[in-house]
Design a protein that fits this description.
- The radius of gyration is 32 Å and the shape is rod-shaped.
- The longest helix is centred in the first third of the chain and has 25 residues, at about 10-35.
- The model has no long low-confidence stretch (mean pLDDT about 90).
- The protein starts with 10 loop residues before the first helix and ends with a helix.
- It has helices at about 10-35, 55-65, 70-80, 100-110, 125-135, 140-145, 150-155, 180-195, 210-225, 230-245, 250-255, 270, 295-300, 325-340; strands at about 45-50, 90-95, 115-120, 170-175, 310-315, 320-325.
- The chain folds into three domains: about 45-115, 2-Layer Sandwich (Dna Ligase, domain 1), CATH 3.30.1490; about 115-190, no CATH class; about 210-340, no CATH class.
- By secondary structure, it is mainly alpha-helical.
- A hairpin with a 5-residue loop joins strand 5 (about 310-315) and strand 6 (about 320-325).
């Protein structure tokens, strides 16, 4: 019987086997990291990806915040998918329950994390500041300080002491790193776009042409007074008619501007309070806007209805009773105010 010889060691076969094991392990690792998130979504971070940033820097930040398992794996996935040059800069809210594929899809699509802020028509800078503070976006005092910044006013060609009247009422997206002045710039640029779309010629009922500040000031008063959009041109006609004959405008919202938000009524002490904005005590328009008007009020300021109205009083249903004479107006006051 022939004796069995020991199996001869073959380095080449061993190397092939080792390479196969390594490749299989690498594929398993790649697929595991690709389809299995590192956590359950409880770890949430706001990740900043500034313009010009590279994929490696982003991957290292994600790994540091424990959003991904491996920065090398993330870079590899991005390169294999051709995503490295498609990532959009911005602020992203990511969590550890997301896979690299989901994260890359979010960055390629530019699905940035915005905070929304809506400024209602007619709101003043004071009301805007209060809303922003309530939402936890900015401090009221800091926002108002930026609204009064002389350099910003000069930059945007705004005459006066603040940006009042030029913060266009709309919904805005704020990144989580956005500062007060950046939001203000957004709002003023939107105002400029909307104002540029208005007819160039102003109303002629007063016998003169208004400049932009006067139009915005008048529009801010119309916006505060009107509840029904359809009445804005009528309210505008009252103000235009009064300006034409030199009659005080006697607009209630002007009496409380800078003191409190206008709620629909004013007291005798409000009317008698000395203020450069109080149109019960001054003639003509206030020195500047008392709120931020929308396009409807701006249009009404330029194009009032053709009427002979000099007075209006609230009907308690959101509309107004308009009158030509003081006698008619007094009867309307008795009917709609004193009996309520």
């Amino acid at each position: 019987m022939r004796a069995m010889l020991p199996t001869q060691f073959q380095p080449q076969q061993f190397l092939v086997s080792a390479v196969r094991i390594f490749l299989i392990s690498l594929i398993i690792w790649y697929l595991y990291c690709l389809f299995t998130p590192p956590g359950s979504g409880n770890v949430v971070h706001d990740i900043s990806f500034p313009p010009g940033s590279g994929i490696r820097t982003l991957a290292q930040q994600l790994k540091k915040e424990k959003i991904i398992r491996s920065s090398r794996h993330f870079v590899l996935v991005a390169r294999l998918r051709g995503s490295t040059q498609q990532l959009k800069a911005g602020e992203y809210r990511l969590n550890d329950g997301m896979t690299p594929d989901q994260i890359l899809h979010k960055l390629v699509s530019g699905d940035v994390d915005y905070r929304k802020f809506t400024l209602p028509e007619g709101y003043s800078i004071y009301q805007a500041a209060e809303l922003l503070e309530q939402k936890g976006y900015f401090k009221k005092a800091a926002f108002l300080a930026k609204c009064r910044d002389s350099a910003a006013l000069k930059q945007f060609g705004i005459t006066g002491m603040s940006t009042e009247g030029y913060l266009y009422p709309a919904t805005y997206n704020l990144s989580r790193t956005e500062r007060e002045e950046q939001l203000i710039e957004q709002m003023i640029k939107q105002f400029d776009r909307k104002y540029a779309e208005l007819p160039v010629t102003a109303a002629e009922s007063t016998g003169k042409t208004f400049d932009r500040r006067q139009i915005v000031t008048l529009a801010s008063m119309i916006e505060k007074e009107a509840v029904s959009p359809e009445e804005k041109p009528l309210i505008s006609s009252v103000f235009h008619n009064r300006l034409k004959i030199g009659m005080p405008l006697q607009s209630d919202p002007t009496a409380v501007y800078g003191v409190r938000a206008f709620s629909g009524t004013v007291s005798k002490s409000d009317i008698l309070r000395p203020s450069p904005y109080n149109t019960y005590l001054i003639k003509g328009l206030p020195p500047g806007p008392i709120g931020n008007p929308g396009v409807g009020a701006l249009q009404a300021a330029q194009h009032p209805s053709k009427t002979e109205y000099l007075y209006f009083v609230a009907r308690q249903d959101g509309t107004h009773q308009f009158s030509r004479t003081l006698e008619e107006h007094n009867r309307a006051v008795v009917k709609y105010l004193r009996n309520h």
